[in-house]
Amino acid sequence: MKKQDTLENQANYAYLALGSNLGNKINNLELAKFNLSKIGVKVIKTSSFYHTKSWPNKNFPDFINSILLVKTNLLLTELFNKIKLIEKTLGRKKMPKNYPRICDIDIIDFNGKCLEVKLKAQKIKVPHSNMHKRNFVLIPLYEINQNWLHPKFKKNIVNLLSTLPNNDLRSIKFG
């Protein structure tokens, strides 16, 4: 039998970005959180819901976004594969990049490390490569952890937010 502290050392912490711009958006995100709990992912903190314009095509429906801090014993590849299954279960279909979707779940950070793992047809890269440029990631992330540090750039979240254009900061709204 393993000691409790040994089991604790196996826990992984991740920040997940959730987004939806089709259907009942808030319900889609709540269902995603519920499904995460069924696969061994414990939600530690959840940001508020944020309303943002679709990017890069502002003609697509607006998004509702949120950030989660989660704890899991899943490895990065296991978490990624299970997240993709949750997206599919909720009705996400294969579409061109940045097209409207019922549910999008991205791994933003995994244990505060820089990792790159190649799967069959995809590559998992954490931290997420463009997260530092996106208000819909940084603002909700700041809400749940004002001390978060970008694993690659070694910049805290306040510094990253200060690099966003003012109109990006003003364009995001609560729920």
In words, what does this structure look like?
There is one protein chain. It is built from six helices and eight strands, in the order αβαβββαβββαααβ. The strands form two sheets. Strands 1, 2, 3, 4, 5 and 8 form a six-stranded antiparallel sheet that branches. The chain has a two-stranded antiparallel sheet with strand order 6-7. It is an alpha+beta fold.
Which features does this protein show?
alpha+beta, Alpha-Beta Plaits, six-stranded antiparallel β-sheet, 26% strand, globular, disordered N terminus
CATH class: Alpha Beta
**Order of SSEs:** HEHEEEHEEEHHHE
Largest sheet composition: 6 strands, antiparallel
And the CATH topology? Alpha-Beta Plaits
CATH superfamily: 7,8-Dihydro-6-hydroxymethylpterin-pyrophosphokinase HPPK
Q: Which architecture per CATH?
A: 2-Layer Sandwich
**Total beta strands:** 8
Terminal Cα span: 46 Å
CA-based shape: globular
Helical content stands at 25-40%
Low-confidence runs: 1-8
Q: Give the overall average pLDDT.
A: 89
- Strand percent estimate: 25-35%
Structural classification: alpha+beta
